[in-house]
Design brief:
Blueprint lengths: L1 H4 L6 E4 L1 H9 L9 E13 L10 H10 L3 E3 L5 H7 L3 H4 L3 E2 L6 H6 L5 E5 H5 L4 E6 L7 E8 L6 H11 L5 H6 L2 E3 L1
Parallel strand pairs: 3-4, 3-5
Antiparallel strand pairs: 1-7, 2-5, 2-6, 2-7, 2-8
Length: 183
């Protein structure tokens, strides 16, 4: 975003809807190029080699959080609202870390936090952490990623072709291998 705000040229940008909304609203992205490309579910992670708690059901997930020594998650992504809805926000408040930047997986990898809650793609692509499991289906939260073409693209047709490629049969297996789902 800093680069875009500084006026650096680009052709395609992919991010979460809130970020993309601002870029479409300000005309930095071509309005009709907005495309949902992937989504990633939320999961629980531990440091590589650490014991994995049972989170197979909502009650088991709650117990895992209550029993954890430390927990990290982002302010975005629905987790703060989830722990509130589950009625455990006050009980775990003293052991929760909510960083301002997306470093939850790094904190878990360094052993600074016992349990992390993050998008599965982040967990699968961060060295030093392991996916315990996705959140139970009843409380699963997906993070959508949207693509758009720069209003100043020198190759808008090629940019649109790239977005189309990301939705095609060649890219789908790669997307799935990274813990995401197409569209």
């Amino acid at each position: 975003m800093k680069q875009i705000d500084a006026g650096e040229p680009f052709d395609v940008f992919v991010s979460i809807p809130a970020t993309m909304d601002q870029l479409f609203k300000t005309g930095k992205l071509i309005a009709d190029s907005r495309t949902k490309v992937v989504r990633s579910g939320t999961g629980v992670e531990v440091r590589a080699g650490a014991p994995k708690p049972n989170i197979s059901a909502v009650e088991a997930f709650k117990r895992a959080l209550l029993n954890a020594k430390s927990i990290a998650y982002l302010r975005i992504g629905g987790v703060p609202e989830l722990v509130e809805r589950l009625g455990i926000a006050d009980a775990i408040k003293s052991k929760v870390i909510i960083p301002d930047t997306d470093i939850v997986s790094e904190l878990v990898a360094k052993g600074e936090v016992e349990l992390g809650i993050a998008v599965i793609t982040q967990i699968l692509t961060t060295p030093g952490v392991e996916l315990v499991a996705p959140l139970p289906s009843e409380i699963q939260y997906y993070v959508q990623f949207v693509a758009g073409v720069s209003a100043n693209s020198k190759a808008p047709d090629a940019a649109r072709a790239l977005i189309k490629f990301l939705l095609g049969p060649t890219a789908v297996p790669v997307i799935k291998s990274q813990g995401m789902e197409p569209g």
